[in-house]
Amino acid sequence: MKLVNEHVFVTGGANGIGAAIVLDAAQNGAKVSFCDLAVDAGKKYEKELTEKGFNVFFHQGDVANFDNLKIAFDAMVAKFGPVTGVVNNAGVNSNADPVEMTNDQWNRFFDVDLKSVWHTAKLALPEMRKAKKGAIVNIASIHARMSFPKFFPYAAAKSGVIGLTRNLALDEGINNIRTNAVSPGYTLTPLLESWFQTQPAKRAESMAVQPLGRMAQTSEIAKVVTFLLSSDASFVNGADWIVDGGLHARFA
């Protein structure tokens, strides 16, 4: 119960890694609020976890739109009090052609995958600074270091997430606010499964290069996140935790 008395806010918490983080944080004693654009899935998950006795709260929220996100954030604070931990998990893939991609598509993608980290910081940092306490965990990706053809400009956004992690760690450390990133490798999420469905041969190719002979479960990513949110990680700041089963160590 390493997160007792904490209020953890998770973006993109209705599915995949985000849902696993919501569950693990709640299992560790936190009050957990989460937002998502998948309203039906979010409400269903909130009901499921509440019936199991966990303190969770869902509110529709678009991380790309600050005003919309603030409505969700304010409702969460009204429910559970000041946010002490933030997990920036919401994100989308991009498989754009650099010539065909439109300006609007570019802006929407970066608003979700990168700008949203700034949005949550604007919302959560004032109270964290007052309390002289807080933890932020940004979900990046191994794509920040190495990428894959036809993923433009996904790697740029995830590299930016790690850059913002460094900035926040250096600027807010004096306030006892720690900021870290987690970079998952292949993780069995609905997003990954949908990609495999469009390119079936890639599943076997992806499995063949896994040093542990398997891909990650979402719960394995979540456990690293909740560690970084907790006081067990009290001197971990500005780090990027690669959780990919050793994939980054493999020679191409």
Automatic annotation (TrEMBL):
The keyword DNA repair does not apply. It comes from Candidatus Nanopelagicus hibericus. Coiled coil: none annotated. The keyword Transit peptide does not apply. InterPro entries: NAD(P)-bd_dom_sf (IPR036291), Sc_DH/Rdtase_CS (IPR020904), SDR_fam (IPR002347). This is Classical SDR family protein. Keywords: Oxidoreductase. Belongs to the short-chain dehydrogenases/reductases (SDR) family. GO terms for molecular function: oxidoreductase activity.
